[in-house]
C-alpha cells in the first residue's frame, strides 16, 4: 500500500423523499431575515433549514410581487 493515501469522508443526507411545506408566515419571516443589513442568504437558509436556491426564489418573488407572491397565490385578470 502506498505511503500517501488520501481518505475522504462522504456524508449522504436524505430527507425521506417528501417536500417540506412552509407556511406563508414562516416564508415571510425567513425572507425578512435576509433583508437585514449584512445578512447572508446562505447563512439565513442554513440556519432555518431551507435550501439557499429556494430562499433566493422566495426573496425574489416577495421583492417583485409582495407578500402575496410568497404565499404562491396568483390572481390574474385579463382584459
TrEMBL record:
Family listed: Belongs to the transposase 8 family.
The organism of origin for this protein: Roseivivax sediminis
SUPFAM superfamilies in the record: TrpR-like (SSF48295)
Family annotation (Pfam families): HTH_Tnp_1 (PF01527)
InterPro entries: Transposase_8, Trp_repressor/repl_initiator, WH-like_DNA-bd_sf
PANTHER family: TRANSPOSASE INSC FOR INSERTION ELEMENT IS2A-RELATED
Gene3D superfamilies: Winged helix-like DNA-binding domain superfamily/Winged helix DNA-binding domain
GO MF: sequence-specific DNA binding; transposase activity
Protein name: Transposase
GO biological process, one term: DNA transposition
Amino acid at each position: 500500500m502506498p505511503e500517501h493515501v488520501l481518505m475522504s469522508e462522504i456524508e449522504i443526507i436524505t430527507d425521506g423523499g417528501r417536500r417540506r411545506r412552509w407556511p406563508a408566515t414562516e416564508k415571510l419571516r425567513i425572507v425578512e431575515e435576509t433583508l437585514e443589513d449584512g445578512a447572508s442568504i446562505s447563512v439565513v437558509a442554513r440556519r432555518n433549514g431551507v435550501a439557499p436556491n429556494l430562499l433566493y426564489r422566495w426573496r425574489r418573488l416577495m421583492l417583485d410581487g409582495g407578500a402575496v407572491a410568497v404565499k404562491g397565490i396568483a390572481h390574474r385578470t385579463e382584459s
